Amino acid sequence: MRPVNAVITQIIRETPSIITLRTDIELDAAPGQFVMVWVRGLDEIPMALSYPGSITVQRVGEATEALSRLDVGDSVGIRGPFGNGFEVKGEGDGDGKGNKIMIIAGGVGGAPLLPLAQQARSSGLDVTTLIGARTADELLFEEHFSKCGALSIATDDGSKGHHGFITGAMDQFNLAGFDQFYICGPELMMKSVLDILQAAGLEAMAQLSLHRYFKCGIGVCGACTIDPSGLRVCRDGPVLSGDLLIKSELGKYHRDATGKKIMF
Fold first, then answer.
1. What is the CATH number for 117?
2. By CB count within 10 A, which of 6, 135, 168, 173 is most buried?
3. Which residues contact 64 (CB under 8 A, 6 or more apart)?
4. What SS3 class is residue 43?
């Protein structure tokens, strides 16, 4: 698949380190699917969609730094969408009193989870969202998530909500009362959340969006396979079940562009 030229029509400053680039294309993507974004002359990287035809970017490397310097009228190449997104199970009654789901978002991990929360709410599901960040001004999509249902906040420095990691904010909930859990964020955070769910016997009810180094994005090169299952994150994921990931390399190591193991 060749990249489609996507012209930037709007730039939204979400937090001091995160921006959203809105483009002139709309993609028929399920929440949690990703696109390959071609930064011309530099690299092609996987990005989740936060709004239709929009990507939300945090500066963490050379390619994302280049994306953060783009202006309205500039363009990028986009391939996709690819992969498996989040699966919403059950139906609501239209009043937010149907199946109960918990969404757990750490940092920029809120990007693929926002469209999920909005879809679930519009389907009448009972949505509870936990968002976490280092500081209050780095909380992503707080207002948007609050419109989807109950919202709980955690910040590392205690500037808003629970003082500490997002796992601490989970203590206030009866986890057994939820039907599904949807998780995206830093990998060590996701591993800690999954450990809590496993201790409660709920890991099979969790879906996690996993990030790995991608080359092709279509399952050919094998750069994003995870041990020991051999599943390809770009093709079989990026959303994978908790009962599968609890037995994997999650939170232990990942591989760089050369295939070398990098320990967390």
1. 3.40.50.80
2. 6
3. 45, 57, 58
4. strand
Nearest alpha carbon to residue 166 among 180, 181, 177, 147 = 181
Q: Are 20 and 72 in contact (CB under 8 A)?
A: no
Distance CA 242, CA 206 (A): 5
With left for phi above 0 and alpha for psi between -120 and 50, is residue 53 left, alpha or beta? left
Which tokens in the block code for residue 135? Answer: 């500081």
Q: What is the pLDDT of residue 4?
A: 95
pLDDT at 91: 61
Note the helical H segments in 130-186: 142-146, 166-169
Measured between its terminal Cα atoms, the distance across the chain in Å is: 33
Q: Closest by alpha carbon to 240, among 45, 83, 29, 9?
A: 83
| HSE-CB for 260 with a 13 A CA cutoff | 3
- The stretches in the chain having pLDDT less than 70 are 90-98
3-state secondary structure of 185: coil
Main-chain phi, psi angles of 105, to 5 degrees: -125, 125
87 inside domain: no
Per-residue CA distances from 48 to 114, 233, 260 (Å): 11, 13, 25
pLDDT one-digit tens code per residue, 137-150: 999 999 999 999 99
Same domain, residue pair 115 and 72: no
Residues 6+ apart with CB under 8 A from 138: 15, 16, 17, 18, 107
For 13, the domain range is 4-82
Rounded to two decimals, the pTM is: 0.94
What CA dihedral angle connects 159, 164, 165 and 167, to 10 degrees?
-120
